[in-house]
């Protein structure tokens, strides 16, 4: 998983990739819960580029995209938002996989 480094990088990824942005933070306990199985999901769903977005570093991007809870996921394909799994609730591996599978339908 790559880590977002700039606003420009986010725009480039949104417009040129099939990308899933994971909004997270170091201090978030629910974010730590999903970390162990994220590499497995990346390996399984290779059509998608996974990008870690630090909520504290990019709070303005969170606000612009109505991401007010973490962990949350936004998916873009060819510059269009194609899915969002945004809430403050803890997410299970199964819920995240279900979200990814729906993106390809």
Automatic annotation (TrEMBL):
The lineage of its organism: Bacteria, Bacillati, Bacillota, Bacilli, Bacillales. PANTHER family: THIOREDOXIN, THIOREDOXIN-1-RELATED. This is Thiol reductase thioredoxin. InterPro entries: Thioredoxin-like_sf, Thioredoxin_domain, Thioredoxin_H-type-like. Residues 1-105 form the Thioredoxin domain. It comes from Halobacillus litoralis.
């Amino acid at each position: 998983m790559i880590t977002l480094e700039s606003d420009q990088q986010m725009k480039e990824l949104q417009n040129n990739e099939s990308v899933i942005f994971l909004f997270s933070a170091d201090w978030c306990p629910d974010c730590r819960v999903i970390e162990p199985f994220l590499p497995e999901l990346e390996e399984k769903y290779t059509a998608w580029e996974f990008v870690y977005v630090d909520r504290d570093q990019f709070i303005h991007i969170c606000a612009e995209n109505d991401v007010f809870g973490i962990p949350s996921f936004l998916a873009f394909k060819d510059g269009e938002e194609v899915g969002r799994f945004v809430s403050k609730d803890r997410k299970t591996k199964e819920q995240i996989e279900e979200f990814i599978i729906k993106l390809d339908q």
